[in-house]
Amino acid sequence: AYFERIEEAEEKVDAFITLTKEDALKSAKKTDEKISRGEKLGAIEGIPVAIKDNIVTKGIKTTCASKILENFIPPYNATVVDKIKNEGGIIIGKTNMDEFAMGSSTENSRFKNTKNPYDLSRVPGGSSGGSAAAVASLEAPLALGSETGGSVRQPASFCGVVGIKPTYGLVSRYGLIAFASSLDQIGTLGRNVEDCAFMLNVISGYDDKDSTSVNMVKKDYMKYLSEDIKGMKIALPKEYFGEGVDKNISERIRESARAFEKLGATIEEVSLPYTQYALPCYYLIATSEASSNLARFDGIRYGYRAKDYSDINELYINTRSQGFGEEVKRRIMLGTYSLSSGYYDAYYKKAQKVRGLLKKDFDKIFEKYDLILSPTSPTLPFRIGERSDDPVSMYMADVLTVSVNLTGCCAISVPCGYIENLPVGLQLIGNRFNEEKILRAAYAFE
Ligand code: GLN
């Protein structure tokens, strides 16, 4: 049924880079057999899942939407993919994204533009735009995306679906092709909070293959959903409603805050004074780490290799010049610059200090409040092409999401209605490893 739907919707939406129909149908058959034999079923037995194309899948092309990995077939599965398969989930395909997850509109894909299912002339957000669009257009009930600075929440908001960015360390990054390792985290996208909580149960947990994975008792997130939110304290940071944020969106979120009050929560305005430095801090750290992580794509070990070269240097240069797109090259250059001697202290080191201050800002709020409430995106989904020539205006799309990645916190984006027939997303931020709180509040609100 899902492949029938995909056939119908893909023509317009273009959410997938690769479809794995044959394998998926084989897995579905296995589930059928299990059912008829009365065997024990996995937690997500028979449920189709779409996977962002920067999460490696054994024997299935994993491109990062880049020419440099255009024909790359990984020899192993990411831990999250193994977990899904072990619980009976069925991988139906790999979704489109901004190249190496760098972008906010999925327009940086080497292969195609994914369209926003609510208005095909608009972007689905990014970088997990394919995953969000696939869920929104009913091509998949569940999808995985990745977050470095908002890439699950912002497309969830643009496409009217739910998206979770888990606490750094909750979900294994093994097999997630690295963009900025201290920020990257795999997240879930679904049609509602319950589906996302369910998926988080499947993919979370300690993994000794990821040295940043945290070893702690696994929680069952479904258990917390139906608890009420009476007495919950929610902070509304004034910086998240200020300049650059669409007034109609701000108003919609304030209305939603009143809905939380009706559910028994208390709402108070607070200040997160370092917010204004979050975006520059993010773009320094993310580009620095990216410049280092992407050094492995050299045309020698795997992936694309340029045809013409006369020595090893030319091989590197031609391969990387031809293999990477504009935005990826821009970031490698920015990152290399800020890590270079003489500039390191002024840029990278300073950004790390600012990151520490941001974390203190958040810690202070979480001493008094359970959650932070804000818009997910400062604007409604913009038109395809509207920002693609202006990187800084594209970077502004992340202004309300990057702090969560810089501080390692968890957050969720939940739909909260429409403006001009376009979906609006509300963001709930929780302290590290407080997923149950954001899920509980989002579920009560939904
Ligand atoms: N849009 C942000 C960027 O371009 C975030 C990307 C992400 O979260 N992967 O860096």
How is the secondary structure organized here?
Blueprint: H1 2-13, E1 16-19, H2 21-37, E2 48-52, H3 79-86, E3 90-95, H4 129-136, E4 142-147, H5 153-159, E5 162-165, E6 185-190, H6 193-203, E7 233-237, H7 247-262, E8 266-270, H8 278-293, H9 312-323, H10 326-339, H11 345-368, E9 371-375, H12 391-395, H13 402-407, E10 410-419, E11 422-430, H14 435-445
Parallel strand pairs: 2-3, 2-4, 7-8, 7-9
Antiparallel strand pairs: 1-3, 4-6, 5-6, 5-10, 9-11, 10-11
Helix pairs in contact: 4-5, 8-10, 8-11
The chain binds glutamine.
Glutamine is lined by residues 101-104, 127, 146-151, 179, 286, 398.
Keywords: ATP-binding, Ligase, Nucleotide-binding, Protein biosynthesis, Transferase
Protein name: Glutamyl-tRNA(Gln) amidotransferase subunit A
GO molecular function: ATP binding; glutaminyl-tRNA synthase (glutamine-hydrolyzing) activity; transferase activity
What does this structure look like?
The chain is an alpha/beta fold. The chain has a domain at 2-224: Amidase signature (AS) domain (Amidase signature (AS) enzymes, Alpha-Beta Complex). The protein contains 14 helices and 11 strands. It has helices at 2-13, 21-37, 79-86, 129-136, 153-159, 193-203, 247-262, 278-293, 312-323, 326-339, 345-368, 391-395, 402-407, 435-445, and strands spanning 16-19, 48-52, 90-95, 142-147, 162-165, 185-190, 233-237, 266-270, 371-375, 410-419, 422-430. An 11-stranded mixed β-sheet has the order 1-3-2-4-6-5-10-11-9-7-8, with helices on both faces. Strand 2, helix 3 and strand 3 (90-95) form a beta-alpha-beta unit. Helix 4 (129-136) packs parallel to helix 5 and helix 8 (278-293) crosses helix 11 (345-368). It is globular. The two termini are 27 Å apart. Bound molecules: glutamine (GLN).
